[in-house]
Amino acid sequence: MTSSFRLHTVAAALGLAGAMLLPVAHAQNIKIAMVIPATGPVTQYGDMVKEGVTTAVEMANAAGGINGKKIELVPVDDACEPKQGPVAANRVVNAKIGYVVGPVCSGAAIAAVPIYNNEGVVAVTPSATSPALTEGKNFQFIFRTIGRDDQQGPAAAKFIADKIKPKKVAVLHDKQSYGQGIAASVRDDLKKVGVNVVLFEGINAGDSDYSAVITKLKSAGVDFIYYGGYHPEMGLLLRQSAEQGLKTRIMGPEGVGNPEINAIAGPAVEGMLLTLPADFSANPKNAAIVKAFKDKKRDPAGAFQLSSYAAAQVLIDSIKAVGDNPAKVAEHLHKASFETPIGTVAWDKKGDLKSFEFQIYQWHKDGGKSLATK
């Protein structure tokens, strides 16, 4: 979850409430819905997914589409809100669309996927990492092209324990499905290796003043902070901690990896640590795909662009293989493996990837990132 441009055109097409599905698809086209946040505070993650899916579809259509039929993308806004997730899902179902890339955020996805599964709509999320999305659900139509928080959490905890070696750690979260889930995973993994977690506490997403929790962190004498949540709150925590003299490094999950955090945090963002998918754009095997992104002035190196490309690709490849039948496509996904920009992907019976690599990066005040070594 690259550039800070907004989905003005998508939002305009959907209307303020996102009540209509546009554009109207032609009968001969194969429709794939993009369920993304076109409104709300995290539209940038929708931008990332849109870039990846659009590039995949453009390349497929240029090569002849799916068995001679063109692929048509239908954007649907859920604002990354759990209450909007089912609303968006019902729009997809009512429009008789059988395939979805998304939802983007874990909370909205958890609320929506029972509808997709029950109605036989194949949904592949490129970004929702909460284990609760799939664990114990026995879904047949739900997949993801990103790792789970219980893969991401251990990577973060191992780096903290091995490289940072803090004496007192505070773990904060935004009280939401994604943020609290990844925070709990990191906390538990830190405890397993003997790291002292002195505080586990939630903050309110959308607040503008976190001075109270910062005061508590100073009083507790913490020397490292992990935050589970998204970039708006992380940016404020970084900036306000610096302003209040709390000089300790802060780490977050892939949800904080957004260039807009620089405008919020200012110079305090320098050195922020975060887990991200590996930079698949650096793989020479992806040169043609990377060129297709750059030719359209899109960023292939963001958190979710290539996982979104992969989500669209596996749907397209499966429809080519078994026909435009969601039930057969879902069955094919469970059985097959695919060569994608994020590597060879295959799923377990829950629809989770059998393997996925998260790496630790440090963020810089110029908006760039580099692999972290300490």
UniProtKB/TrEMBL annotation:
Protein name: Branched-chain amino acid transport system substrate-binding protein
Signal peptide: 1-27
Organism, scientific name: Giesbergeria anulus
Top-level taxonomy: Bacteria, Pseudomonadati, Pseudomonadota, Betaproteobacteria, Burkholderiales
Database matches in InterPro entries: Leu-bd (IPR028081), Leu_Ile_Val-bd (IPR000709), Peripla_BP_I (IPR028082)
Keywords: Amino-acid transport, Signal, Transport
Keyword flag Signal: yes
GO BP annotation list: amino acid transport
Keyword Transport appears in the UniProt entry: yes
Pfam families referenced in this protein's UniProt entry, alphabetically: Peripla_BP_6 (PF13458)
CDD domains associated with the record: PBP1_ABC_LIVBP-like
Domain spans labelled Leucine-binding protein: 30-367
Protein family (similarity comment): Belongs to the leucine-binding protein family.
Highest taxon above the source species: Bacteria
